[in-house]
Amino acid sequence: MFLDGHTSTYVRTVTERLRSLFGEDLLGVYLVGSGSMGGFDPQKSDVDLAAVVSGSLSLEHKREAVRRLSHAALSCPVRKLELVVYGAQAVEGPSPSLRWELNLNTGAAVGVEASFDPGAEPGHWFVLDVAMAREQARALFGPPPQDVLGEIERGRVLRALLASLRWHRENDWEGVQSVLNACRAWRWLEEKTWSPKPVAAAWAHGRVDDPGLIDDALARGTDGSSALDKDAVLRLVKNVERRIEQSLGES
Fold this sequence. Notes:
The chain is an alpha+beta fold. The chain contains ten helices and six strands. A six-stranded mixed sheet has the order 5-4-3-2-1-6, sandwiched between helices. The model has no long low-confidence stretch (mean pLDDT about 95).
């Protein structure tokens, strides 16, 4: 793992609590995102976990998981924990449904945000999470991720990347995440390689007309101090969107 000591201990405790709660129904717990890919920064990163259970969860089990893992019950040492629990039937086989059982965000930055309804949230985030997890996740409990997570076809990943770029374009006022996500999407499009955002930004640095924009995005991180040049951000994002749209048209 690429986590600091405090976060490693926290992740092990989360895993132990999931095992205690779900028992033999818990098939696997996986570290995903920056924590598995080498870009983890305890000052900026979240802890991203995916868990797989053998079947659907009862409402009682969902509520108990939220209670045991909430920031008040188990203090998260970074901004927040992002945990998604899937039933095995939702992630197995080709082009899985990805209809999750529980989506929990908790930490000092957010309190507790728990959802039990996959229809209430945009599905593209979970397509990308599982696509990354299948290739890059690290098993904290259970078999390798490729044994439980089905492969998601390329067109579906591209459509999810396009949706994520558009979401950031509409919601990211600062522009930093728009730039970094565009770099990661671009690299996956060209090389089918998932990478931490800073690594993807370094890859894109020599491929853009305005490398200073990427330098600014990396320097500012997530401090929210000021916005990047909106026109420059839009040009980069639209360029990546066009590349994805062209690839979708050719597939």
